[in-house]
Design a protein that fits this description.
disordered N terminus; two-stranded antiparallel sheet; binds adenosine monophosphate
Length: 204
C-alpha cells in the first residue's frame, strides 16, 4: 500500500475515510464549520472521502470542502432519495444504488475508517450499525466519533448505560474513539494501522 503525502508532508496509512453526518441545513454554524474543517483536513492529507452523496446539510459541506481542498470525494446515494438529498453533481465518483442497504454496505467496503460527525436519525442509524458490525467482527476499521460541542454526550452516555446495566460489555467501549478537535482526529488516523480489507458484507 502506498502512503500519501499531504501538503504538510505528513503521511497516513489510511487512505479513505467514510464521513457520516447530518443532511439538515437547519443547524448551528459551528456544526457546519467543523464539517468543513474535517473534510479540508482529510483532503490536505490525500485521503479520499466517502459519504452519502447528497448536497444538503453537513453532507454537502463535507463534499464541497473536500473537493475544494483537492480530495477525491465518492458519493453513494440510493435512487429513491436522489432528489430529497439533492444529489451532488460535482463528485469524483457518484454511485446510484438500489437501496439503503446497498448504500451502507458500499460505504463500508470503500472506506478504511469512519468518522461520525453530528447528524440526525440517519446518522444515528449509521453510527449504531457501523459499531454493531465491528462488534460482530464483520469489519475491523477505526470508528471515530467527533463530539463537536458535546453533541454526542447523550449518545455516549447511552452506550455507557448499556455497559453499566450488563447489556453490553466493557470491551465494547473500545470499539470507537471520541475526539473533539481535528488534530485529535488526524492523530488517531495517523496512529491506526491500515485495516484488513476483509469486510463480510454478505452478513451485513
Ligand atoms: P440524517 O442524519 O437523518 O440527516 O441522515 C444522514 C444520512 O443518513 C442521510 O444521507 C440519510 O439518507 C441517511 N439515512 C437516513 N435514514 C437512514 C437509515 N435508516 N439507514 C441508513 N441511512 C439513513
Amino acid at each position: 500500500m502506498s502512503f500519501i503525502s499531504s501538503k504538510q508532508g505528513s503521511k497516513l496509512s489510511i487512505s479513505s475515510v467514510c464521513v457520516y453526518c447530518g443532511s439538515s441545513n437547519d443547524v448551528a454554524p459551528h456544526f457546519k464549520s467543523v464539517a468543513s474543517d474535517v473534510a479540508t483536513a482529510l483532503a490536505q492529507r490525500g485521503i479520499t472521502i466517502v459519504y452519502g452523496g447528497g448536497h444538503v446539510g453537513l453532507m454537502g459541506i463535507v463534499a464541497d470542502a473536500g473537493l475544494k481542498a483537492g480530495a477525491k470525494v465518492i458519493g453513494i446515494i440510493p435512487e429513491h432519495i436522489r432528489s430529497k438529498e439533492v444529489q451532488h453533481n460535482g463528485l469524483t465518483e457518484l454511485h446510484v444504488v438500489a437501496n439503503m442497504h446497498t448504500r451502507k454496505n458500499m460505504m463500508v467496503e470503500r472506506s478504511e475508517a469512519f468518522v461520525i460527525l453530528p447528524g440526525g436519525l440517519g446518522t444515528l442509524d449509521e453510527a449504531f450499525e457501523i459499531l454493531t458490525w465491528k462488534k460482530l467482527k464483520l469489519h475491523n476499521k477505526p470508528i471515530i466519533i467527533f463530539n463537536e460541542g458535546g453533541y454526542w454526550d447523550i449518545f455516549l452516555a447511552l452506550i455507557h448505560q448499556t455497559v453499566k446495566e450488563g447489556f453490553s460489555q466493557l470491551p465494547d467501549l473500545g470499539l470507537f474513539k471520541v475526539v473533539t478537535t481535528v488534530d485529535e482526529l488526524l492523530a488517531i488516523l495517523e496512529s491506526e494501522a491500515k485495516p484488513s480489507a476483509t469486510v463480510v458484507t454478505s452478513k451485513m
